[in-house]
Amino acid sequence: MKLKEIYSVNSKPVISYEVFPPKDDIDGQKLEQLFVELEKLMKFNPSVISVTYGAGGSNQTESVEIIKRIKSDLKTTPMPHFTCVSTSEKNIKNYLNTLEQHGIENILALRGDMPQNQEICHDFKYASELVEYIKKESSLSAAVAGYPEGHREAESLEKDIEYLKVKVEKGADVIYTQLFFNNNHYFNFCEKCQKIGIDIPIIPGILPVTNFKTLEKMTSLCKVDIPADFYEKLDNHKDDKDYIKQTGIEFATNQCRELIDSGVKGIHFYTLNKEYATGRILSNL
What we know:
Blueprint (H helix, E strand, L loop, with lengths): L2 H7 L4 E6 L9 H13 L6 E4 L8 H13 L4 E7 L5 H13 L4 E5 L16 H11 L3 E6 L10 H13 L4 E6 L3 H13 L6 E5 L5 H9 L7 H9 L4 H21 L4 E5 L5 H9 L1
Parallel strand pairs: 1-2, 1-8, 2-3, 3-4, 4-5, 5-6, 6-7, 7-8
């Protein structure tokens, strides 16, 4: 089922997950463990499971294998990520063909981070160009990324939303947001998007905090505000793993409740390939 249908036929908020190909998985055990974790999460009836994809085509083979198994074993709609920066038009065309051959209907179109220490290809510079190409060369439904606090490279939030509108005008069907911890940023973002004519679903991305070091790493890579009282609790107990998990789950549960009460079309969970936190949050809800 294509994204436009998924977010229009469901009366309840659509549940979706993000996973990534395990690193250094020499014997395949990490991949099998990923599917053990996903099997546990299937009781919450996710409509979409997205799979990340490295810049320039790294871990493409692993991504395709996971996508195929999500479709065949879990009977759920997979949505591969695809980054266009430093990827040739020929490689993109081949990848789109591969996805369609496997019956994939959706893709998350991203610019991606510029890879280091390799020759740069300039066929595509922006995600909007990738969306346009996907709509021209395939029948795939395209999702794109949105940044409630602005992309770290953008001049301003308003300018970033203008870039987002270009992606929508080129044919994007759904927007998935970067993680955020302050719902007001999301509400403000949606209001600004609506004012300039963006009318497709904007799905909030939620990262359940389960590890203090992981939180610091993730937030160092993107522009995100952590509420002071929440951060203080975590910082004061950063070596207490159980406290961090339970506090993170409680915070994300309340965050999701407020988002659902506001009428969001869905919630997208950054699972970090683990069932525990996402499962507890959905059970709480």
